[in-house]
Specification:
The structure holds two protein chains of two kinds. By secondary structure, chain A is mostly helical. Chain A has helices at about 5-15, 40-50, 65-85, 100-105, 105-115, 135-155, 175-180, and strands at about 20-25, 30. Chain A has a two-stranded antiparallel sheet with strand order 1-2. In chain A, a hairpin with a 6-residue loop joins strand 1 (about 20-25) and strand 2 (about 30). Chain B is an alpha/beta fold. Helices cover about 25% and strands about 20% of the residues of chain B. Chain B has helices at about 15-25, 65-70, 75-80, 130, 140-155, 165-175, 210-215, 225-230, 250-255, 310-315, 345-350, 385-390, 415-425, 470-490, 545-565; strands at about 5-10, 30, 100, 155-160, 190, 195, 260, 265-275, 280-290, 295-305, 335-340, 365-370, 375-380, 410, 430-435, 445-455, 455-465, 490-495, 525-530. In chain B, a hairpin with a 3-residue loop joins strand 8 and strand 9 (about 280-290). The radius of gyration of chain B is 23 Å and the shape is globular. The chains are: A mainly alpha, B alpha/beta.
């Protein structure tokens, strides 16, 4: 179970990358759900804490990777604001219990991630395992971006209650939102769009 | 205790070839593999239960079981952490095996019988001759009969045309490129991918046959699931995409001389100091990935085929003799990714249909080769992987912060409403993978972490910085891809600008430095290598698997000639 602080931080991250959007086409107002609507924040935290974290234990040091990642985003936000003093931020609770990162505008949250990725952040101030670890820090920023996008556009959400325990016979309980938003028809037995060959081989090193 | 003739470490793109070749020549072979075995009755629940220890007959292979396991869903199959096709133990409740990356990157490999060919796209071009001749310790001419043998055995066929290939050819022709009807490529031009995928069933366009029927028959159904693990065919041996677990492994089992043991991680090469031969390999120490039990296995010859990361890691963790080139000189083709989004009207004009449908057809069915620079190839698959590769992965941050260009519309990651809009056009997108010829640089490669260990020993550290030549080659290929997309009529060009990605890893145990021209280690006799790591260089930027398979065929002959005649 993640703390409200950690959850709020990852919700604000997912909201930045895949926000809820609105469509006004054809005189109709339509809400197009975003990543938070489909628990993508939980997917990322699960990847960090269950899949990655157990491989990083050194000297039995105890840490929750999702929490220290949230702290890293906040520490970087503070340093970013120090060097960009005219950056606006808000005090209302869009993501209750979140830290400084969650109070920034979406575009400034992205600036903070790039601030970290470019290693402009002071690595000595970050918690373990980010502290003085540039390769890991850059790769974790990469992972949180990739996880958000893959989690949303793959079928992950469709597995219902079994989405955190992949099994031999996982079943989809709904059409995944990523399929709906892209028009992907799902796995196929085949297609008929066969348009011939440009070249054929004869297995003797020749071409037909 | 049975002493085998040969133990092979790794049942992937190289190890499976050596198993079949050596088995056919009468040698007793044990093939050990770290990951699971899908489609084998001895492991009916390969991700849940330990199952049995060995399989040595095609009687154990079961297409119905296989088809239940390979469900073509990209999260279930391809998720880097939990997917069935991941670099990790069979038990999906355990985390994947970690590699420490010194730079922002992704390493995309599979553990399992079939190795990374489980998810590969089947692309099988030969090396560019000019990258071999007068460069490698062996000539291109010497490799040709081995290429031909592998091409016939897999077999390799030129890819069929679907919408995305047709659009690519249209743009390439308009951009002034010529068709190159050859397997031995000396000059630039476009051509269909030589793929290890069976030709489409002759009745694919015949509506009297349902797609369900066709999926149980011989031949590709152009379903677009190469990367997710192709499950279609009447038997395991006739599955359409020719990963080694459906091609060479069944052939190896049929020799009656090969036994395969999955779920077995090799943690040490055992050696002795022989009075005549000097230091030589005599066996391996393995760990069962389910029980954690260790065991020692012995053979007259050992072959490493664990891949470009694990082979040098195994050498280093085994404390084999020091060699300054072990793990060093890694190339990875410094990949990049460019996409175009098209208007419906333009697609109707070119294709006669309103969509590119990137999920249809071979994942990559067309390419443009440019010897000396590299190649580019069409790429298309399911939306999660498409979104990740196209919009989620960049060296240049988020697109908002990059300067506009007259060559492309966006550079870098796309997020927010723009991402959703871009993915709403998923079915009107054509993507091109950039594969650059990069140079061997001693600074790049594999070491082992002094602090972090997993159950198999110190974990690998992967370090890669592209050289100036790699950057120059990639830039030129990006320009060519953009030009082809524009000539095809793309209305929006997206340059992803990837960080260096380790998908085609080669030359971490180079021929001429770590192994000799027969792929035997200079410093440890009876220890051979048959994976991409022995490549002298990046073979000019061509996809590496076929060359590794040709070399593995050749090395098998050399082993028999040297130690078993």
């Amino acid at each position: 179970m993640h703390s409200l602080y950690t959850k709020a931080t990852f919700q604000s991250l997912v909201d930045t990358i895949l926000p809820r959007t609105y469509d006004f086409k054809k005189n109709q107002f339509q809400i197009i759900p975003g990543g938070v609507d489909f628990s993508i924040d939980e997917y990322i935290m699960w990847n960090l804490d269950v899949q990655l974290s157990p491989r990083l234990n050194i000297d039995d040091s105890y840490f929750i990777l999702s929490t220290v990642t949230a702290q890293t985003l906040d520490i970087a936000s503070m340093q970013f604001l120090h060097s960009n003093t005219n950056t606006p931020y808000h005090n209302d609770y869009i993501f209750p219990y979140g830290g400084l990162f969650t109070t920034l505008s979406r575009i400034d949250r992205l600036r903070v991630i790039m601030f970290i990725e470019k290693l402009d952040v002071d690595l000595t101030t970050l918690p373990f395992p980010y502290k003085n670890n540039p390769g890991f820090t850059m790769n974790l920023m990469n992972i949180i971006n990739l996880s958000t996008i893959f989690g949303f556009y793959s079928e992950w959400f469709g597995y219902g209650n079994s989405r955190f325990s992949p099994s031999e016979n996982s079943r989809l309980f709904c059409i995944p939102p990523g399929w709906i938003q892209t028009g992907y028809p799902g796995p196929a037995l085949g297609y008929r769009d066969f348009r011939g060959f440009l070249l054929e081989m004869d297995y003797m090193g020749g071409i037909k | 205790m049975t002493i085998q003739d040969v133990i092979i470490i790794g049942a992937g793109g190289g190890g499976a070839i050596a198993a079949k070749e050596l088995g056919e020549m009468g040698l007793k072979v044990l093939l050990v593999e770290a990951g699971p075995w899908y489609g084998n009755k001895k492991w009916p629940l390969p991700n849940k239960e330990q199952g049995e220890k060995y399989s040595d007959t095609t009687e154990d292979l079961d297409i119905h079981l296989y088809r239940r396991q390979f469900d073509k869903l990209e999260y279930n199959m391809n998720d880097l952490n939990t997917g069935k096709l991941r670099w990790g133990p069979a038990n999906r409740k355990k985390p994947p095996w970690l590699r420490n990356m010194a730079h922002r990157s992704i390493i995309w490999q599979n553990a399992g019988v079939g190795g990374t060919t489980l998810h590969y796209w089947g692309n099988c071009p030969r090396a560019y001759p000019d990258s071999i001749d007068n460069v490698w310790p062996v000539s291109y001419r010497e490799l040709i009969p081995y290429y031909q043998k592998v091409e016939a055995t897999l077999p390799v066929n030129f890819a069929p045309i679907t919408s995305k290939e047709e659009l690519f050819y249209y743009g390439a022709k308009r951009a002034g490129w010529n068709l190159i009807p050859s397997l031995d490529v000396h000059s630039p031009g476009y051509r269909p991918q030589p793929n290890a995928i069976l030709p489409p069933n002759e009745n694919l366009a015949n509506s009297n046959f349902s797609l369900e029927q066709l999926s149980w028959m011989e031949g590709c159904t152009i379903c677009g699931h190469c990367v997710n693990g192709c499950p279609h065919g009447p038997t395991i041996e006739k599955v359409a995409k020719r990963s080694t677990h459906v091609s060479y492994i069944p052939l190896a089992l049929k020799t009656g001389n090969v036994s395969v043991r999955p779920n077995t991680f090799t943690i040490k090469i055992l050696t002795e100091d022989h009075p005549v031969e000097g230091i030589r390999a005599i066996g391996i120490r393995v760990k069962d990935t389910w029980s954690g039990e260790t065991e020692e296995l012995f053979a007259k010859t050992i072959i490493m085929a664990a891949g470009c990361v694990e082979t040098p890691r195994l050498w280093l963790n085994s404390k084999l003799p020091q060699n300054s080139w072990v793990g060093r000189g890694m190339v990875n083709h410094y990949f990049d990714w460019v996409s175009g989004i098209f208007d419906e009207r333009q697609l109707m004009n070119v294709l006669g249909s309103p969509e590119t449908n990137p999920f249809v057809g071979h994942n990559s069915g067309a390419r443009l080769d440019y010897p000396g620079i590299g190649c580019i190839q069409v790429a298309g698959f399911s939306p999660g992987l498409t979104a990740t590769f196209t919009y989620g992965f960049s060296e240049s941050g988020y697109n908002f912060f990059n300067d506009p260009s007259d060559r492309w519309d966006t550079q870098g990651r796309i997020v927010g409403p723009d991402l959703k809009e871009a993915m709403a056009n998923y079915r009107k997108t054509l993507s091109i993978l950039i594969i650059a010829d990069d140079e061997v640089d001693h600074k790049n490669g594999i070491t082992v972490d002094p602090y972090i260990k997993d159950e198999n020993g110190p974990i690998p550290v992967v370090n890669y910085t592209p050289t100036s030549k790699a950057r120059k080659n990639r830039k030129k290929l990006v320009e060519i891809a953009i030009d082809i997309l524009k000539q095809s009529g793309a209305r929006k060009i997206i340059w992803s600008d990837w960080p260096a990605t380790s998908i085609h890893i080669e030359s971490t145990m180079r021929m001429g430095f770590v192994v000799d021209a027969d792929c035997e280690a200079y410093q440890v006799k009876r220890l051979f290598i048959v994976d991409n790591s022995v490549h002298y260089n990046g073979i000019g930027g061509a996809n590496p698997t076929l060359t590794t398979q040709a070399l593995a065929t050749r090395t098998s002959e050399k082993i028999v000639d040297k130690y078993f005649t």
